[in-house]
Amino acid sequence: MAGRRVFVLDTTALLSAQFEPGPAELVTVQEAVDEVVYGGLAPQRVSTALSTKAIKLKKPSPQAIKQVEETARMTGDLPKLSKTDLAVLALAYEERVGGAEVVVVTDDYSLQNTALRLGLGVWGVGRETVREMREWVYRCLVCGKVYTRPMNRCRECGGEVERVVKRASR
Ligand SMILES: [Zn+2]
């Protein structure tokens, strides 16, 4: 039997991920969600993904946070990690201890480095796009107008704008 695959999303991943059903379970922590919501960046997409359980919210234990702090101190990354980063790492670490195959999805270098040291997989948000050779456009869900640059709201009608694949090559 194949093990569980879990993608742990940090704030940068929440802002750019396509929350479609995939081969892995998507999880994140409240701290990362708070950064998205209070930052005023794409909160609607994220809250929709949370309410439909496309992304699950989990809370790491204080022991797991202590463990990743220890590791980050050893790698020298601790001063660069926020409380949110540590929560993301702790959640990923716990999932790994629980037997899942874990990938931390983040663009943050210190987070990636500590994750590797903890034996976790890492996946850069930017790299995902490059690896899959995708080109994105941004389409209004209401009127269908297509934009080449990301925006939260359609300039024509104020509708929600979604990122879609323009062309996929393999
Ligand atoms: Zn529109």
Strand order of the largest sheet: 3-2-1-4-5
Question: What oligomeric assembly is this protein in?
Answer: single chain
- By DSSP, the count of extended strands is 8
Question: What's the average pLDDT?
Answer: 83
Number of domains: 2
Helix and strand layout, with pairings?
Layout: E1 5-9, H1 11-16, E2 25-28, H2 30-38, H3 43-51, E3 55-57, H4 62-75, H5 83-97, E4 101-105, H6 109-117, E5 121-123, H7 125-131, E6 134-140, E7 146-147, E8 161-168
Parallel strand pairs: 1-2, 1-4, 2-3, 4-5
Antiparallel strand pairs: 6-7, 6-8
The structure holds zinc ion.
Features:
170 residues; alpha/beta; Rossmann fold; five-stranded parallel sheet; three-stranded antiparallel sheet; 41% helix; 22% strand; binds zinc ion
How would you characterize the overall build of this protein?
The protein has 170 residues and is an alpha/beta fold. The radius of gyration is 17 Å and the shape is elongated. Helix 2 (30-38) runs antiparallel to helix 3 (43-51). The protein has 2 domains: 5-127, 5'-nuclease (Rossmann fold, 3-Layer(aba) Sandwich), CATH 3.40.50; 133-168. It is built from 7 helices and 8 strands, in the order βαβααβααβαβαβββ. 41% of the residues lie in helices and 22% in strands. The strands form 2 sheets. A 5-stranded parallel β-sheet has the order 3-2-1-4-5. Strands 7-6-8 form a 3-stranded antiparallel β-sheet. The chain has helices at residues 11-16, 30-38, 43-51, 62-75, 83-97, 109-117, 125-131, and strands at 5-9, 25-28, 55-57, 101-105, 121-123, 134-140, 146-147, 161-168. The structure holds zinc ion. Zinc ion (ZN) binds next to loops.
